Amino acid sequence: MTNTANIFLPTGSIPVVSSTRSTRAVPPFPWVGLITLSAAVFLSVTSEMLPTGLLPEMSRSLNVAQSQIGLLVSWFAFTVVLTSAPVAIWTRRFPRHGLIIVVLVIFAVSNILTAIAPTYEFVVAARVLGGVAHGLFWSVVGAYAGHLVPKAQIGRAVSITVAGGTLAFVLGVPLGTAGGHLLGWRLSFVVLAGLMLVGAVLVWKFLPPVARYSTGAPASASATKSAPKIRQPRDATVPAVALICLITGITMIGHYSFYTYIAPFLLDGLGVDLGLVAPLLFAYGVAGAVGLLLVGTIFGPRPSLGLILGLAVSGVSVTLLAVFTATLPLAIAAFVLWGMAFGMLPPLLQTRMLHAASPRIRDTASAFYTTAFNAGIGGGALLGAVLIESVGLELVPIVYVGVLVVALLLVIITDRMPRRRARS
């Protein structure tokens, strides 16, 4: 799963520079281009998470354990972690617009290969290819919206772009799951591949191109030789950023140890019919969107309070879900409440990180945050697979709650550290 947390960038961090150019008319807001970019994000996240909804069908078809299908999420996420930085460096001189088109085509190929895969190993190879594309995609999209608008509109532009990731959980994964139940999981990947190609055409036609990013290199080699090397002091905000990335990784490990295998839990743990899995995932996604709305309206300026509540409510709701499996209405209510509480966590973690990081390291901090997020996704799916094989699916949510408690304690401890320094 990929990160949707950039929605709530702190607007106070965007400086307004006055100049004679400020009298010029502000260009029209690029709604069409940004919506097109958001659609590409929607397709990317749907491709990443679709196996979670189709896990039972893929397991039977490929004749492997359900935990092995869950590990497809790990293969995808770990590929993103390992390849995103080197591939981004290798392609830094390529036009950004063309890269997004190429990435969507590679996504289409990856999904077609998944659909026709004769063996599990073939599916793994196809997912690795998709993971490489996904890492490159986010290295480009992360800054693309900011190049389409003036600085004062960056927060608004980014919120539109990454909203596609939220919509993937609300519509993409549930619809793909429902299609897989009705027509077979392979056809779901074929349809997604076709949508990827349509998305590539839309990007080519409607997304405005931007210039390649500046590397900030000096103007000449002589200037580099003559200028003395000044060693900058270590940034004082690095420890805080590292701790937030640690909390992010821990939280995602716990979440995806359970959520990756949510379809078999709903079927075997709660005993729901196969036809109800997609509607329940839809309800979970809608609840997550409500959580995002709560962050934007209430908890955005109070990320610490929101984080504590989000982690605590997630732990309580998952506990209820695990304990009251025999009481279906209560279990479903707890499932939806979990979706809302967890929907608050990624944007609040990102907001907390942006508040903690100094402007000098903010870009680097965001890159480390993305790496921690994806490492958590892959590590969580791997942990869930190990737990299922060793202790059984019914204990996975209990382990998840334990991990949430660790994350919650770390958040509380880090909140008290500045207060102690202030007293001393």
Describe the structure.
By secondary structure, this protein is mainly alpha-helical. Helices cover 76% and strands 0% of the residues. The chain contains 15 helices and no strands. The chain has helices at 31-53, 55-62, 66-90, 96-116, 120-148, 154-183, 185-206, 221-226, 238-259, 262-269, 277-299, 303-323, 328-356, 362-390, 396-423. α1 (31-53) packs antiparallel against α3 and α6 (154-183) runs antiparallel to α7. The protein is globular, with a radius of gyration of 22 Å. It is found in: Cell membrane.
Give me the secondary-structure topology.
Layout: H1 31-53, H2 55-62, H3 66-90, H4 96-116, H5 120-148, H6 154-183, H7 185-206, H8 221-226, H9 238-259, H10 262-269, H11 277-299, H12 303-323, H13 328-356, H14 362-390, H15 396-423
Helix pairs in contact: 1-3, 1-5, 1-6, 1-7, 2-3, 3-5, 3-14, 4-5, 4-7, 5-6, 6-7, 6-11, 9-13, 9-14, 9-15, 11-13, 12-13, 12-15
InterPro entries: MFS (IPR011701), MFS_dom (IPR020846), MFS_Efflux_Transporters (IPR050189), MFS_trans_sf (IPR036259)
Keywords: Cell membrane, Membrane, Transmembrane, Transmembrane helix
Subcellular location: Cell membrane
